[in-house]
Amino acid sequence: EEVLLKVSGLTKHYPIKKGIFTRQVGAVKAVDNVSFSVKRGETLGIVGESGCGKSTTARLVIRLLKETAGSIRFEGRELTALSAGELRTVRRDMQMIFQDPYASLNPRWTVERTLLEPMLVYGIGSKGEQRDRVQELLTHVGLNPSYAKRYPHEFSGGQRQRIGIARALVLHPKLIIADEPVSALDISIQAQVINLLQDLQEQYRLTYLFISHDLSVVRHISDRVAVMYLGQIVELAETEKLFATPLHPYTEALMSAVPDVQGAKKERIILRGDVPSPANPPAGCAFHTRCPRCMDICKTEAPPLKEAAPGQLAACHLYA
Ligand code: SF4
Ligand code: MG
């Protein structure tokens, strides 16, 4: 399978400055040496608690943020080296779906205006073709084409997210980055939107980078899943392997909080303490302050992310 997106050593540090000469005294390590790849047509889920760096990773990939270090290759092209003009062309192929569709839609624009905008910006199609495309998109996302003349406030949350999805599809993108796309929706609506994303993926052979704090949502949609903690990927595996046999103690703890499909009782692993500040992450394994299986080596040496079982990477000294 062809790799569409390859991220290597991606890092985003925010300098912490102090004093009148704004001397840099440290850095918030929002994303720290993250590597993964996504194959064409695949869905890679990124899961973790808020503040773990998953949204920052998404924003770095789509170039809303500039990295401190690392490489992002999209269809073999190095994105971090592109000029603004070159980036504009690539950005057509990468679109984002946001958590809050209401905040990301212009309240003064009709749905039609919102969906026309990308075509106007890139100068695509005649007036007639543009209008046809709007009608077609609304149908594809399960909305009545007659809604084109309505405004965002006239829609429910689920309908607004369908408009957000339609907008992401206007230019026939290859990669869609979805950042918590259903977290703001009622549970009953979440499944509908996830199913829509899956149908569209099949229809258009889309590739998804799907970010969520919700393990069950990620499990449902992802082919593979990366688990993040304090700016780093701690485990990366095929979805079924990750859920059947989580290897990293942090993944294990996350999973223990989710009731399993059979409703079987699992022993809930309660982690001690809070997530440390990314401005001052623990030495060695960043999880060692909370890990129930911490060993001496964990306090001084950072474990590399490497194959711990077939098809399953973990950053943990238990698998050295
Ligand atoms: Fe726990 Fe050590 Fe593994 Fe870190 S490296 S997750 S502290 S066992
Ligand atoms: Mg899939």
UniProtKB/TrEMBL annotation:
Residues 5-255 form the ABC transporter domain. It holds the Pfam family oligo_HPY. One of its GO terms (biological process) is peptide transport. It comes from the Bacteria. GO terms for molecular function: ATP binding; ATP hydrolysis activity. The keyword Transmembrane helix does not apply. Keywords: ATP-binding, Nucleotide-binding, Transport. The keyword Nucleotide-binding applies. InterPro entries: AAA+_ATPase, ABC_transp_ATP-bind, ABC_transporter-like_ATP-bd, ABC_transporter-like_CS, Oligopep_ABC_C, P-loop_NTPase. Belongs to the ABC transporter superfamily. This is Dipeptide ABC transporter ATP-binding protein. It comes from Brevibacillus thermoruber.
